[in-house]
Write a structure and sequence with these properties.
single chain; alpha/beta; Rossmann fold; Tyrosyl-Transfer RNA Synthetase; 3 domains; 3-stranded parallel β-sheet; 9 strands; 11% strand; binds tryptophan
Amino acid sequence: MQSTRVLTGITTSGTPHLGNYVGAIRPAVAASRQPGVESFYFLADYHALIKVQDPARVQRSTLEIAATWLACGLDPDRVRFYRQSDIPETTELMWLLTCVAGKGILNRAHAYKAAVDRNREAGEDDDAAVTAGLFMYPVLMAADILLFNAHKVPVGRDQIQHIEMARDFAQRFNHLYGEHFVLPEVVIEEQVATLPGLDGRKMSKSYDNTIPLFAPREELKKLVYSIVTDSRAPGEPKDAANSNVFQLYRAFASEPETEAMRQAFADGIAWGEAKAALFERIDTEVAPLREKYEALMAQPAGIEQVLRDGAARLREERAIPTLRVLREAVGLRDLSLAGRDAAAGSAGTKPALATFKQYRGDDGRFYFKLVDGDRVLLQSGAFESPRDAGGRLAALRRDGVDALGDGVVLGDGVDIDTVRAALAAIARDDAEKAARRNAGD
Ligand code: TRP
C-alpha cells in the first residue's frame, strides 16, 4: 500500500524554545514513528532569508534547529530530514508555480496584507519595505509541498491559508499540464496546547517571553522562577485553570501528576514551591535531551553530513526525476525530439519508444540490442551471462550515451544523436512512471 506522505518545514530564524518543543517537535517526533507514514521534516532556510538578513544568525539557527530535532529523537534513517536549500529543485519548481500563481491571490496573503496595512497606517507607500520575497513566500512554500506530492501538512493555524494557496497553484498547474500534483491537506493539531510564556501571553519569540529549550540547568531555573504570577500568599487557594505555572506543568506532567498539582493549587501551594516542582518536572524531561544536544552541537560537521545525505537521497529518488517530468510537461524539452513530438502531437499519440531486446545468440551467449521499429540503434557484443548483459543494459538506461562503448556499438548508419534522443525518451518515460508511482495515484 502507498504510504501517506506527511511534510512540514521549520523556518530557521530562531532558537527553539519550550513552546516549539511542546507544540511541534515532541508531537512530530512521536508521529514520525508511526508505521505507514513517510515523514518529511526540513529546515526552511530559504524561507528564513525573508525575515533574517544576518548570515551568521541564519547559520546558527539552522545548526541549533537541526541539532534540536536530532536530540529530540528524530531518526534520519526513518524520516526524510533535510535542508531546503540543499534541494535546488525547490526553487526551480517555485518558478514553474510562479508562472501559474495568480498575483491577486498573493495580494490577499495575511502576512503581505498585514505589511500593507501597517504601511497605510503609517502613511507610507503600500509596499514600502516589502520585499518580493515576502510577497512570494506562499509560492516557495507550495514548491516545498508539491515537490514531494505531500498528502498532509501539519502546521499552525497561521499557515492554513498557505496550504490553501498551494492547493490552488497545484490545481491550476494540473489543469494546464495534466495531473502532476496531489492536492495537499492541512492538518491542525487541535489538542496541542499553546504554551504560555514568561509573561502569560503565548510563548513566542516575537513577545520575547520564551524559555529556550536547551538553556543550561541554572538558566532554566532562573527563567522558571521569573514566570509572572499573581500575588496570592502561601496557603491561599490558587486558580490552576488561569495559571501559566500550572499550564506549563501540565505540558510536561502525566495525568496523575497534573491532578495532584491541581489539588495542591486548591490547597494553597506557595508559588515558590509550585515553581520548584515545575522546574524539576521540565528538567527531568529535558536534561537527557540537552546532553545529546550539547554533544551534537560540539560536532557540527556530523550534522552537516546528516543533512547532506538526506538531501542527496531525496534529490536522486524524487526531486530530480520529478523536475525532469515537470520540465517536459511545460515544454522545457530536448530539442532533438522536436520532430517526433510534433508528429506525435498532430497524430494525438505518443511516439512509440525504442525498446531494448535481450536474446541468446547461436553461439549460446547473451546479447541485447536497442531497436526502433525494425531499425537497430544499438548492438551489444557477447556476454557470458544474462546478468552481465542486463547490467550493461541498465547502465545505458540510467546513464544514456555516457555508458556507450565497451562492446556496445551503434547500429549501421545510425548517428549518436538519434541514440541519445531515444535513450532520453526512455529515461523520461521511466521517470514519468516513477513519478506516477510516487504520487500514488
Ligand atoms: N511557513 C512555515 C512556518 O513558518 C514553514 C514552512 C516552510 C512550511 N515551508 C513549509 C511548513 C512547507 C509546512 C510546509 O511555520
